[in-house]
Amino acid sequence: MAYAIIDTCTKDNHCIEACPVNCIHPTPDEPDYETAPHLYVHPDDCIDCGACVPVCPTTSVFPVEEVPDDKKEFIEVNANYFVN
Fold first, then answer.
1. Residue range of the domain that includes 17
2. What integer pLDDT is reported at residue 1 of this predicted model?
3. pTM for this one?
């Protein structure tokens, strides 16, 4: 996975709009959007372009290598969202 979204995400959707490969979910038209606590980056679909980072108003999107130490669990949380 190239990027991870942490729990400070407010689901403003700017990252969804900026992503050229639609790897950030859930989108507003997906059934679990309202109940999801934040957005997630699909680990297999992300192309490591970084378009999501500068548009995030809450600075909630990080390259996995730069996720703050106290938020490292969100690397796995992002990946686990897509398991099933």
1. 3-81
2. 56
3. 0.93
